[in-house]
C-alpha cells in the first residue's frame, strides 16, 4: 500500500464524498461515518440500493449514479463480498480515493487492490475515518 498519509490527504481533499454502507440503523458505523461528514459540512451522498434517503440526504442506489465520481472520495463500510464489486465500479469510474473501513476487506479484496493498480488510491487494513479524519482534515488547512 502506498503512503497512507498521502492517500488520506488525497481522500479528504476531494470536493465530494460518498458513503456506501450507511443505513437507517444509527448504531452502525456506516451511519456514524455519514453523520461525521454531515457534522463537518462535507458534501456527502449516501449510497444505498433500497433507501431513498438517509439522515435527511437523498441517496443514490450505486456509485455509478454519483454525479461526479471522478471528484468523489468513497467511504466503504460493507462486507468484503460487496466491497469487491464497489472497487470494480470505482476503478471503472476513476474514483480518486477510497477508504475501506475496518472489516470491509479480506484477502480477496486486498489481492484485487494490488493486482488492479489501486494501492495508491485505497486505504485499507486499519485506520478508521472516525478516529483519524479530524487530524487529517486539519493537516489540509
UniProtKB/TrEMBL annotation:
Q: Which SMART domains match?
A: CoA_binding
Q: Which domain of life is it from?
A: Eukaryota
- What Gene3D superfamilies does the database record attribute to this sequence? NAD(P)-binding Rossmann-like Domain
InterPro entries with a match to the protein in the record: CoA-bd, NAD(P)-bd_dom_sf
CoA-binding domain boundaries: 11-104
Q: Give the matching SUPFAM superfamilies.
A: NAD(P)-binding Rossmann-fold domains
Query: Could you tell me what this protein is called?
Result: CoA-binding domain-containing protein
Q: Which organism is it from?
A: Agrocybe pediades
